[in-house]
Design brief:
This protein has 65 residues and is mainly alpha-helical. It is 85% helix and 0% strand.
Length: 65
């Protein structure tokens, strides 16, 4: 599970970087730029969730000791 969360984080980070480069700063909520904003937010959420899973697993291991 630990490796899977790192892989998910890496993929989400790649998607986030790619989509941030696609955002038109003059009109961020129009056409393709809107899609890039939404997918960037989704990638950020995926990174956050994967990090939370790693923290929860670490706390569980510490609690079981």
């Amino acid at each position: 599970m630990k490796i899977a969360t790192y892989i998910i984080t890496a993929i989400a980070l790649i998607i986030l970087i790619f989509n941030v480069t696609k955002i038109d700063l003059e009109a961020p909520l129009e056409n393709e730029s809107y899609t890039a904003v939404i997918t960037s937010i989704a990638a950020g959420c995926a990174i956050l969730i994967a990090t939370l899973i790693r923290v929860v697993r670490k706390i569980e291991r510490m609690a079981n000791k």
